[in-house]
Write a structure and sequence with these properties.
The protein is of the alpha/beta class. The protein has helices at 44-51, 73-77, 95-105, 110-123, 139-151, 169-184, 196-202, 220-232, 237-241, 252-260, 264-270; strands spanning 6-15, 18-28, 33-37, 59-64, 67-68, 80-83, 157-161, 188-192, 205-210, 213-219.
């Protein structure tokens, strides 16, 4: 078997008294489209920042592509791409200038950087505004440009933090096409998103983090089987209401709510705002 793309051992990050990520053991096989889910504040972005070398762990180890991230940081970073939640683009450049700059930073020669820049701008439908500054791009255009910059060097692992947030259907379709093409070529994608329907359509495997701890990990079918088994063994009324009928396939949303917030459906049915009753 090939080396897993991502492995963490007892990965922990503290901010003073706050334990943002609490001793997580995570394995992502090469070639997987992997979804990393959790409520707001669960530790998702902190985990991605550690996996990409932007934040040092308090404790634990990270191995990417078989290499220890702490010992081989530069070598690892040459082989990964990142689309952070904040994007961090250079607003006073045009899209073409920015992509050329990123390509050169990844040691692409001038001709290759220029060729890939042209191809990416065309694919992302950004080529028709060559003189427009990034500051004047729409949010969706900036998301597409950030993804283009993250893949210009052909990364083996791509980390995406909320790539579909604030993106319209057309831009989202372009992004999904790019990601599925990368998976077909053997890349590994690590995705965080609150849009569970998109995660369910794209990802083959999922991990769920809650209050800094990893509470579930496996294929979607394994998680479905685990939740269904728990319900059949006798769950609380709230947990049972979060599951589907015997012939229905549990959605990722149902799986997520049952694991992270048991009984949420029952409580929400009972708790109504006084002025909406």
């Amino acid at each position: 078997m090939s080396e897993p793309a991502i492995v963490t051992e007892s990965l922990t990050r503290r901010f003073g008294e706050l334990v943002a990520v609490d001793c997580i053991h995570l394995t992502v096989d090469a070639g997987q489209f992997f979804g990393f889910l959790g409520p707001n504040g669960a530790g998702k972005s902190t985990t991605i920042r550690m996996l990409t070398g932007l934040l040092a762990p308090t404790a634990g180890r990270i191995r990417l592509l078989g290499l220890d991230l702490e010992k081989h940081a530069v070598e690892v970073k040459r082989q990964i791409g990142v689309v952070p939640e904040g994007l961090a683009l250079f607003d006073r450049l045009t899209g073409g200038e920015y992509l050329n700059f990123v390509g050169r930073m990844y040691a692409l020669d001038r001709a290759t950087a220029a060729q890939r820049t042209a191809e990416l701008l065309d694919f992302m439908q950004l080529a028709d505004r060559p003189k427009t500054l990034i500051a004047d791009y729409s949010h969706g255009m900036q998301k597409k440009l950030a993804l283009a910059a993250a893949v210009i060097h052909g990364p083996r692992i791509l980390f995406l933090d909320e790539p579909f947030e604030g993106v319209d259907a057309i831009a989202a379709g372009t992004l999904k096409a790019m990601l599925l093409h990368m998976i077909s070529r053997g890349a590994t994608i690590f995705l965080t998103s609150h849009v569970l329907e998109i995660v369910e359509r794209l990802c083959s495997h999922v991990a769920i983090i809650h209050k800094g701890r990893l509470v579930a990990q496996g294929s979607l079918e394994e998680l479905r089987a685990g939740v269904a088994s728990s319900a059949s063994l006798g769950s609380s009324p709230g947990e049972a209401s979060a599951t589907a009928g015997p012939r229905e396939k549990l959605t990722l949303e149902q799986i997520f709510l049952t694991i992270v917030e048991p009984g949420a459906s029952g409580r929400r049915a009972e708790e109504e705002l006084s002025w909406l009753r």
